[in-house]
Amino acid sequence: MGLLKWLTGDSSRAFRAERYIRPGLVGYYWDGAIPTGRRVRNISLTGAFIEVPDRWYIGTLLNLTLQITAPGAEDVDSAECLAVTCRVVRHAPDGVGVAFMLDSSRERRVLARFLRRVGPANGAVRCLRITGTEGQSLIEFALVVPLLFLLIVNAVNFGAFIYAWITVANAARAGAQYAALGASSVRNPAEPSSADVVTLVQNETVSLLNYSSTNPSVTACENDNGTSSLLLSPGTACPAGTAPPQDPEVQAGTRTYSTVAVDVTYTYSPLIPVFDFPNLGIHATLPSTTIHRRSVMRKLN
């Protein structure tokens, strides 16, 4: 809550108010009997601590009348008594803490004038509460900032990974379409070789991080009636695991189609490699990984 108030610029945080210790005040409230003055241990513009034997439930509302009892207060007029509505916010072994419920800036100004009257002139010790809530906010902020930074880093790295995955998939599909086109287009272009497909895929992936002539690696293989080889390179074996399956369709004892497979393998490295301890097996962000996409299409023989 303290961090939320700090981020939203809430000026009502209790630690901003000057607090008076031993202000020389007593508080009166009605409990069904003759009101008895209860000593106010400390007070500020936001609340006070009253030494009382009663232990009300948290959230109980009280109509509290504050009166000066310090030496020399016998001559003050009725303005030196102040009635304020408050709410019980905490318990202690010797009393309760209350928060003032001020509905307007005018009530706040009246309370501020009253506190100035009961300040150091009546023996009270004035202090500015810079601990408690503010310290809590600083601790919360110190704990949240690394997590927020890690969240931003992971958002960037995962975004880069998804972009690389989509780019590699599109490049593999474009390469397979180009290889399968063969002599089937209207203008009857020359059938592409394996090197032509590799060049096309590299042009499609040039925007990838860590791009080089070998990253991504590209292979274009063909299976013609059970014989696998690099595209338009009969006798040149395909790398292990890249040969496409044989086309299942047989017409009049021959196969009208052959199959073409384009494999694209890209090694992804995180855009922001922070919080990465590979020797310990700890990866707080996305580690380096391999993206492999394959596209298989039929080609008219």
Detailed description of the structure:
The structure is a single chain. This protein has 301 residues and is an alpha+beta fold. The chain folds into 2 domains: 18-128, Beta Barrel (Thrombin, subunit H); 163-300, no CATH class. Helices cover 27% and strands 30% of the residues. It is built from 4 helices and 13 strands. The chain has helices spanning 2-8, 105-117, 133-181, 194-204, and strands spanning 18-28, 38-43, 47-50, 61-68, 81-92, 95-100, 125-128, 217-224, 227-230, 257-268, 276-277, 282-283, 289-300. The strands form 3 sheets. A 6-stranded antiparallel beta barrel has the order 1-2-3-6-5-4. The chain has a 4-stranded antiparallel β-sheet with strand order 9-8-10-13, covered by helices on one side. A two-stranded antiparallel sheet has the order 11-12. A hairpin with a 3-residue loop joins strand 2 and strand 3 (47-50). The longest helix has 49 residues, at 133-181. It is rod-shaped, with a radius of gyration of 39 Å. It starts with a helix and ends with a strand. Mean pLDDT is 82; it is low at 11-15, 72-79 and 126-132.
Strand content: 25-35%
Compute the average pLDDT.
82
Shape: rod-shaped
SS-based class: alpha+beta
Q: How far apart are the termini?
A: 71 Å
Number of domains: 2
Q: Note the main sheet.
A: 6 strands, antiparallel, barrel
What proportion of the residues is helical, as a percent range? 25-40%
The neighbouring-strand order within the major sheet is 1-2-3-6-5-4
